[in-house]
Fold each of these.
Amino acid sequence: MILLTVQFAYFIGKIVNELLIFYNQNPLFSFVSKEIIQILIFALCIYFGLKMIINQKEIQLKSLKKSFIWLVILYVLIQVLDSLYSFYGISSFDGYIDKLALYKDYLKTNYFILIVSSIVYYLQLLLFGIIVVNHSIKND
């Protein structure tokens, strides 16, 4: 479940980032918006996913197999959508490459932003742990 939510959050964050780059937004705003959206989507997916799991009275092997199959199908679907988006998405529009070059140049001049990008991934894992502990404390 965590791999699926991380990938889904990354996919949505990538779309938002590329849209903001395409519409000539401030590179810092594009970057911060992407990171915030990734964290929010990740937290919401984990929260509602755990809520659905906890609300089940008893977990049966049949429902567990069914849930696992759905998670694998959703993961593969997100991977396919991500690949299709990479080929046919905003990056295929005219002028996007020049705008992306300006965005990358801005990121190269500000190394702190790249460090924050790395920290966001670990923040998502920490957030996952906090949500799990919070749910387990509420249900005890």
Amino acid sequence: MKLNLKKIARGGIAAGVAIFAISFVFDYIVNMALPYDMLALGGMRAIDDPLMLLFFLQPWVLGFAMATAFEKFKGAFRSKGWKRGKAFAIYVWLLVGLPSAFIVFTSRTYPIGFTVSSLLGSLFYLVGAGIVLEKTMV
């Protein structure tokens, strides 16, 4: 199967915007209830380090990776429409979001707000991105 690069580009950009927006809103809500300063956590680079610019591209890196995988595997899902996007996103969360949150929770002494944001925030923004991919790539 040949990958449609135009669809991947469109879907990756749109999914990145969805990830950024949902993550921003969810993190804001979690931070109101369980405050933490992500940039003060151990192991984080200083905000003025030039490499930190790449950190803020993460939503689009993830969006393009999801768009590429969605283009390749969307036919494997029986459901159609937004349900297919949601199902795809849950698989991505099970493969990426859940293990990542587990590793951070078990190996770091980060505040509980960070763990909640990592675990649930990734589920919400991945589902949002999956639905966006379904709408922009099919």
Amino acid sequence: MSQIRGGLLLVTLLAGCVTQKPTERILDETGVLHLHTTRTEAYCKGVAPRHENLPTAQPWSTTLYIRTAGNQDGRGGAENDLKLAILDSLRTDDHGQGRLRLPPGTYILIDHDRATDRRYHQLLKDHAEETQHRGAADKDCLDKWMRGPFALFTITAGDTTMVEHHISGKCPWSTVPCAPWNGPLPP
């Protein structure tokens, strides 16, 4: 009877070790991206106020997409290569904070508009011709807008990589990339 109990105890212990090792290995083979996002609203009301009255950076809740870095430019940036799959996405909280485990590698953060070419083609279609207040979309400019370069970050197994990501807001007349506003501006 004691041999059976001993055998069951050994099997139970071994089963516990087997189920824990893959989890431990996964944690050891990944790193953590700790992302902090901020956004500064654009000042869109004419003559700029004194420096202390300008909008300041605030925490920003958003979703960003993570793609393996494409061709690197040698200056800390990389191309947004749409042939490479989106690896994951990360939603930051109301404090602009987000964390995600990733395998070791070099990545870029991209916004929703450049995760696929859907917005690119929609912009070309919607702004194919000049209108009363907006110029036609410049395809070369949109190609550069899609490709980047975007800032790189590197994940190392067992480490945490801190990334600060800041976005500057746009005035309503400048929200369409590569299609210049020709209409009246506010006073």
Amino acid sequence: MMAVVAFALVAACGATYPGSELLGRWNADVRAMLAQPLAEPYTALTLAIVFSPNYTYSIEVRAIAAATERTGPGCTTSSMFSGGTWAVNVTSTGRWLTTGGTVSGTIERTGCNNAADNFARRAATERELVVLDGVAYIVSDGTLVFAPSGPLGARVFTR
């Protein structure tokens, strides 16, 4: 799946080259940011994005379903997505992050209350892929904030 996207980047001061402020792992407690009733199905929902110096990125998602859920009660679903590439273009209007590459991933479900709901690691379907897509964000004081209009919604990531 080819994902080519552009979104504005407001960079932190002191970066050694465009985009260097993104390098490393950014973590978010997504459940804490969801409005009810969206958060109810989960006892935990975390997301991490890793920007590497070789201009690739990966995304990790971990969701633990509440024991009272009808679908997959008590299950821990872990997903890992990689293959995306990133670059920063500096223009007179700011810094723009573009992403591309062929993103692929794996998904598994373990620890379910009903053993039949578990499944071994398998390739993620296109519908299950998490791809950065048209998201404006700001990096400031060790915090990465995505704009509310993007596919990740309004999310605050920290180191």
